[in-house]
Write a structure and sequence with these properties.
Distance between the termini: 20 Å
Number of helices: 4
Largest sheet: none
Number of domains: 1
CATH architecture: Orthogonal Bundle
Order of helices and strands: HHHH
CATH class: Mainly Alpha
Shape: globular
Helix content: 40-55%
Length: about 110
């Protein structure tokens, strides 16, 4: 990944993982590849799903981190887009919460937030 933090691909990085997030456009000259943007967008979608599930259950991020066997700080950094989440992370979130963390795109065009 060329971009150090997935949230840096949001127009306002503090909005990563929220419904208010707006996204930059792919721009190879600026170091914003379509691949990085796709991964950041899907990590963002997963963070939204996790946050919704935690709220619905009345569960805290700290409780989820304990159940996953990870540090609360590490989980928080990934949910805020300060660090890249791995496929292992996404699947462990889905399994622990019993949710779908990623939408299934109907076309390649839906892989990007634009």
């Amino acid at each position: 990944m060329a971009v150090r933090e997935p949230r840096k691909l949001c127009k306002d990085p503090s909005k990563f993982g929220t419904v208010e997030a707006e996204w930059l456009q792919p721009d190879e000259a600026a170091g914003i590849s379509e691949q990085d943007l796709m991964v950041a967008y899907y990590t963002h979608q997963a963070a939204l799903a996790v946050r919704r599930s935690l709220a619905e259950r009345g569960m805290t991020q700290r409780q989820l981190a304990q159940r996953l066997g990870v540090k609360d700080e590490t989980l928080g950094r990934k949910l805020r887009g300060e660090a890249w989440a791995s496929l292992r992370d996404l699947l462990s979130w889905a399994r622990e919460l019993g949710i779908d963390v990623l939408p299934v795109p109907e076309s390649r065009a839906q892989l990007l937030p634009i």
